[in-house]
């Protein structure tokens, strides 16, 4: 997979969301980083939990949780709640977002 196309798609997607939602460009960049990290983990068969967000995105934990909250409210990610430990709740991209990123990855690989 080429590193050029997917980040461009993520950046455009995040900027579109940020502009529509009156977020700053810096927030859009953070959303793109988060989507990219989750997508790469899903492609390699790894799950992502709320507890792991700050490690995989290299953001402070409160900031990572705020970003994932925005992505969830926008319908970009889904969170499957773990009632025993909220920080072990699973995060996944929604189907439409995953398909778009997968298609971009396949086009770049071709």
Structure description:
The protein has a single domain, classed as Orthogonal Bundle (Arc Repressor Mutant, subunit A), CATH 1.10.10. The chain has helices at 5-20, 25-43, 53-57, 61-73, 95-109, and strands spanning 48-49, 77-80, 90-93. Strands 1-3-2 form a 3-stranded antiparallel beta sheet. It is built from 5 helices and 3 strands, in the order H-H-E-H-H-E-E-H. Mean pLDDT is 81; it is low at 1-6. The radius of gyration is 13 Å and the shape is globular. Helix content is 62%, strand content 9%. The chain is mainly alpha-helical.
Q: Summary?
A:
The protein has 110 residues and is mainly alpha-helical.
Q: Element order, helices and strands?
A: HHEHHEEH
Q: Determine the fraction of residues in helical runs and give it as a percent range.
A: 55-70%
Q: How large is the count of helical segments? A: 5
Please state the second-level CATH architecture.
Answer: Orthogonal Bundle
Spans with pLDDT under 50 lasting ≥5 residues? 1-6
Mean pLDDT: 81
Number of domains: 1
From the N-terminal CA to the C-terminal CA, the straight-line distance is 9 Å
